[in-house]
Amino acid sequence: MKIYTRTGDKGKTSLIGGRVDKDSLRVEAYGTIDELNSFIGKAMTELDPGIFKDLLEDLETIQNELFDGGGDLANVMKERHYKLGEERIEVMEQRIDQLMEEAPPLEKFILPGGSPAAATLHIARTVARRAERQTVTLMKAEEDVPAVVQRYLNRLSDYLFVAARIVNARLNVPDNEYVRSAKVFRTDTKKGE
User: Fold this and answer.
1) Does residue 174 have a pLDDT over 50?
2) Residues near 85 by Cβ (< 8 Å), separated by ≥ 6?
3) Environment class of residue 33 by beta-carbon count within 10 Å: exposed (0-12), middle (13-18) or buried (19+)?
4) Does 193 map to a domain?
């Protein structure tokens, strides 16, 4: 089997149900989701399974969901069946809430970084935000774009932020606060009770 097809040599690519220019808004959006998925894969290689088994399971699930969401954006058929559902957002929100119980209190903005895996998760978070922005642009330009993908990416960036903080916390690496940050987050006073 040959991996190259030469069908894209003139600047066009195939979607599910059609062909478009490789620089179309649709291709930009799902291409950025692919980039995001790659950074998540890199972060996974930096996580010790003995310490981060739960996060590795989360991230593997997320990688599959990103394939679903990218495929949903690539689908331009008249009759479509989307793979990414609203229930995945609810599951992610529950997981974020669980991880926030473990996270150290947060009052100020933090700088991306800390351990290598946390830094990679922060990169993934920013790529998730870019993918979300590109999906919003696509939604404004075209009809029949599954809005669940945008909502999923929005929530995913929150998850990746919390996951990066958890990685640092479990490795006893403190968050590096932005020095000129005011106290912008309220700490949960009930957490210590």
Assistant:
1) yes
2) 148
3) buried
4) no
- CB-based contact 174:164 (threshold 8 Å): no
Sign of torsion over alpha carbons 99, 103, 109, 111: negative
Q: How many domains does the chain have?
A: 1
Q: How far apart are the first and last CA of the chain?
A: 62
Domain-located, residue 184: no
Three-state DSSP class for 103?
A: coil
Q: Note whether residue 85 is domain-resident.
A: yes
**Spatial distance between the Cα atoms of 51 and 37, rounded to a whole number of angstroms:** 22
User: Is residue 167 situated within a structural domain?
Assistant: yes
* Amino acid, res. 184: V
% of the chain with per-residue pLDDT over 70: 92
Domain of residue 47 covers 17-177
Q: Is the dihedral of CA 21, 25, 26, 32 positive or negative?
A: positive
Quote the pLDDT of residue 11: 79
